[in-house]
Q: What sequence folds into this?
């Protein structure tokens, strides 16, 4: 039953990484391994794993940041590995959206059992449905329908304006830089002046202001833009 599932193992200690890989493979999983956060993100994009086993204590980018970045991109299941002393990290990890954790030292057999349990639960609730409708106090952004609602009215936006607002709304409360917005809205092969972002943000902000009477997109000087409507 596990033959199709791919597990990404992120652990800098080679001995633990290897034993986890061995146990996963003998249980029928495909294991992909990384020893640092950046490689983990790269492999996650490449292999679309079903579950990620993530050590929190990594050199460089730590596990909490890796988990946060993974969460921006997908709903992949995350099983954290923590030391007994890392209580606060564990709490942070669960808050960011890790699904389960194991405290070191752990039995590899137990790890495999946890992985199987998470995937069994996943199958029981069916495929993950992406969170595609974002409800805020003043607006609702429906990514599936490509519509923005203000009360009972649809806000008229161009395709680019909509994509821009969707990106900002997905990351509500967090600042996105011009570069991030260009990558996600115009695509990484965009050539041109990044001030184009300012122009489009200005248009979307104006339309939102006219419809709601509120400034919902904030300029964070020297950094970028932030969507600041409260989550409903
Ligand atoms: Ca470690």
A:
């Amino acid at each position: 039953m596990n033959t199709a599932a791919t597990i990404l193992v992120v652990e800098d200690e080679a001995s633990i990484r290897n034993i986890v890989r061995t146990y996963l493979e003998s249980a029928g999983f495909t294991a992909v391994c990384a020893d640092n956060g950046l490689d983990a993100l790269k492999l996650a994009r490449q292999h679309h794993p079903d579950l990620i086993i993530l050590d929190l204590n990594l050199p460089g980018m730590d596990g909490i940041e890796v988990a946060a970045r993974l969460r921006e991109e997908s709903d992949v299941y995350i099983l954290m590995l923590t030391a007994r002393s890392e209580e606060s990290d564990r709490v942070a990890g669960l808050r960011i959206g890790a699904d389960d954790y194991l405290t070191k030292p752990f039995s590899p057999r137990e790890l495999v059992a946890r992985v199987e349990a998470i995937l069994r639960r996943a199958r029981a609730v069916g495929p993950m449905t992406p969170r595609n409708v974002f409800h805020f106090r003043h607006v609702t952004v429906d990514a599936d329908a490509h519509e923005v609602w203000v009360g009972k009215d649809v806000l008229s936006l161009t395709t680019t304006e909509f994509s821009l607002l969707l990106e900002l709304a997905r990351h509500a409360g967090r600042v996105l830089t011009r570069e991030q917005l260009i990558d996600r809205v115009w695509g990484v092969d965009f050539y041109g002046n990044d001030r184009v972002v300012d122009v489009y943000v200005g248009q979307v902000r104006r339309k939102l202001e006219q419809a709601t009477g509120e400034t919902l997109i904030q300029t964070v000087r020297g950094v970028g833009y932030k969507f600041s409507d409260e989550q409903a």
Residues 135 and 232 are 5 Å apart (CA to CA). The first helix runs from residue 14 to 26. Helices lie at 14-26, 37-47, 63-73, 87-96, 108-124, 159-170, 178-186, 195-212. The mean pLDDT is 88.
